[in-house]
Amino acid sequence: MSSDSPDDVGSLEGHSILAMVANSLERSKLRGLMEAQGHGVLEAADPDQALAILDRSPVDLAVIDLKSDDPAGRDLMLDMEREGHAVPVVVITKETSVNAVVDLMKHGAVNIVARPFDDDTFRGAVQSSLLRHRAVVARVESERKTPEHGATDDASDQDDLPDNPAIRQVREQLAHGKLNLPSIPMVLKELTQLLQDPKHDQARLVQLVETDQELAVK
Hints:
This protein is an alpha/beta fold and 218 residues long. The protein has helices spanning 24-36, 47-56, 72-82, 98-106, 119-145, 165-175, 185-195, 202-211, 213-217; strands at 16-20, 40-44, 61-65, 89-93, 109-114. Strands 2-1-3-4-5 form a five-stranded parallel sheet, with helices on both faces. Residues 1-10 and 149-162 have low confidence and may be disordered.
């Protein structure tokens, strides 16, 4: 993966993209569009094939086809969520009502491509999704390497963190699946892991939440 600036669209080459599209002709066409952008494409015809790919190969983005008469696409998104595959998803669908879009975002969709669509629309969705994902990864990695202001290794300074009402509320909502937000998958996953640590750093928690605007608003 290139180390160029996230703002450089030309640097968005060499990504690994999973494509689960039921129609083989359309899947082949979309593969050609993504390969022309310099990406490697891993094809899957059903959720089982897609999950097998995710289990053995690092993937930067998933393109999933949703059809009203076939639950395979939605099943895959739910399976990815349950199994902890924090991969951003571009969804192809005819259903673009506000409620439908919000629901898809809750389960990992970062971009919605409405049918019918042209080649430029699809290419743009792939590139913008990779840009957003790269920017988030870069920010999280930068924050990990930056010493926290006022951070301390003294465990006694953090003994009261689990009793912080705001932190306790977020932890309880995550534990009961009530934090239904269109959050970036990797951010929500790391937030969950952080809150499971009784000695977690409150400053790190705040920075992580600020990475996702929807989560910050909540």
